[in-house]
Amino acid sequence: MATMSTKKTTRTIGRTSKSVATPAREGGLNSYLRRIFALMFGAVAVTAVASLLTMITPLLGMLFTETGMSGLFYILMFGGLGLSLWAQVRAFSMKPATGALMLFIYAILVGIVMTPLLLVAVTNNPFTILFAFGIAAIMFACMAMFGYKTVKDLSFMGIFLQMGMIGLVLVGLASFIWPALLGGTFGTIVCFIGVLVFALFTAYDMQTLKRVYAAGGDETVKNQLAVLGALHLYISFIAMFEYLLSLLNRN
């Protein structure tokens, strides 16, 4: 999830001396984090609504063919991936409002593409959706709090987490060619690794966002960072939820 922009920001943070905490700074940090979580949970809500509407409208049938997923499904999936990457690269070149709009459009696409997985869960056991969401929420909250509170520098995890995420993406792409790849024990291991990688990403991103704020910057930059941070945390939460839901519906 880290982009050239965020890497550049992180390097700047590394060269910035630690500032003395003041009530005003603490209040500004809390406001900054509230913006991030408001955007992130707003995007999660949009994803949920998009999935529900997809299930109860003719759009659901358009995602399938007699032999599998339709071309529209892949267009939306890869289009969402491309939009996410573009939004991260251009995060500091667009207005915060535009960035927030891109986040919510991406959340809609994720909700539509996620519908087949939710449909499997609804068919097997609808309660697995609530269970997976609850576990993902608890893990997300714990890891976010850890990333916020810990004094240990987590920056060393960045390269390993990026490698892990790339590996998960490659395995996911390979499964489109060889669907049986994610079956059996290997698929279960991949799901566990996915949960672990994005749980650690939550702590890593949370600490990075806190340090970025401490590095300073005008209000526009902080709003841009809030949108980018919300996107990163949204991706981690949704990924954990999807991997957990897949684990609970392996059969």
Overview of the structural elements:
The protein is 80% helix and 0% strand. The chain is mainly alpha-helical. It has one domain. Helix 2 crosses helix 5. The model is unreliable at 1-21 (pLDDT under 50).
The fraction of residues in strands falls at under 5%
- Helix share of residues? over 70%
In N-to-C order, the SSE pattern is HHHHHHHHH
Number of helices: 9
Overall strand count: 0
The global form is globular
How many individual domains?
A: 1
Could you describe the largest sheet, including whether it forms a barrel?
Answer: none
| Spatial extent as radius of gyration | 19 Å
- Give me the secondary-structure category: mainly alpha
Mean pLDDT: 85
- What are the segments in which pLDDT stays under 50 over at least 5 consecutive residues? 1-21
User: Span from first to last CA?
Assistant: 30 Å
Chart the SSEs and their pairings:
Layout: H1 4-14, H2 23-55, H3 59-62, H4 71-89, H5 96-124, H6 127-149, H7 157-177, H8 184-214, H9 219-248
Helix pairs in contact: 2-5, 2-8, 2-9, 4-5, 5-9, 6-8, 6-9, 7-8, 8-9
Keywords summarizing the entry:
251 residues; mainly alpha; 9 helices; disordered N terminus
Quick rundown:
This protein has 251 residues and is mainly alpha-helical. The protein has one domain (4-8, 22-248).
